[in-house]
Please model this.
Amino acid sequence: MQDLIDSALARIQSAVNADELEAVRVEFLGRKGKLADLSKDMGKLSPAERAERGKFINAAKKSIEEAYEARKQSFDAAALAILLDAEWLDLTVPAAGVKPGALHPITQIQWEIEDLFRSLGFTVLDGPEVETEYHNFDALNIPAHHPARDMQDTFWLEGGNLLRTHTSPVQVRGMERLGPPLRMIAPGRTFRNEEVDASHEHTFYQVEGMMVDRDVSVAHLIYFMKTLLSAIFKREVTVRLRPGYFPFVEPGFELDIRCLICGGPGCAVCKQSGWVELLPCGLVHPNVLLMSGIDPDQWGGFAFGLGLTRLAMMRYGIDDIRLLQGGDLRFLSQF
Ligand code: FA5
Model:
């Protein structure tokens, strides 16, 4: 019987893997194993012999089981180590193929303009892209019957609201909410039912600007516009001021810059004219002040509506407006 134990222990020690160890366990400890065989004829033994045999079987079982458990643990630990090694992940390694993003060129310019105007004491305001007819038109001195409504081909929504055609409604909201004196800019997205070409998008960006104070004149307007353009282009740009008509300013101007794409001879962006219309502006019409609860005899102001998308095109020499919102990473990753 001692031989039986010795041979079981030797086989356990020499098992080379978990399967072999399991086979040894079944052979000795299994229901039909060698220890079970020894209990089979216990009934034929005398009580003393039976007690002796029982004691031996229990002791044998205990020592074989212990040896088996110890060996099994070493196989389990080795298997776990192999698994951990195979599945090891370094969570600090940056994911392969992920490229860092960057700010869109329009956002870059927008943030620069915001910084500049904040440094000049202006507040940056936000307004809704879905506007009321009142804020987009009526409060800007463009009543329903007025032909000036045709200047901006509008996306109307069910229920009478619309996608704002310009950022000018934020002027109105600024005056209503903050009152005079007021210095604000409002960058944002605008929408028009436009035929898309190299310089026209249906969805584009503008920055509205407004200053309402005592004795504001065209000289203030020109000062701020020049400060803005030289900060953005970081060089001398040629500008021209033409009379321009917008019902919410009087007098109104179109500030154009010499086309920076072609330098003057004419191209698709400037429609062969050599000039790009960039910055309509003027002195705020008294009716507009009045409708927003500001007394035009006490206060005056200037306003401008910068075409931010076109400004980005001029600054970076982009000759087709469609590239800016095309989502082509080959284009965008250059900025
Ligand atoms: C306006 O939208 C007026 N609200 C601007 C204004 C504000 C005037 C305050 C006076 C006082 P206009 O329709 O011209 O004006 O548009 C302003 C600028 O937006 C244009 O000079 C141009 O740079 C840009 N823009 C207009 N339509 C488009 C378009 N379809 N695609 C890209 N840019 C456009």
User: Anything to note?
Assistant: The longest strand covers residues 203-213. Residues 72 and 78 are 10 Å apart (CA to CA). The two ends are 85 Å apart (CA to CA).
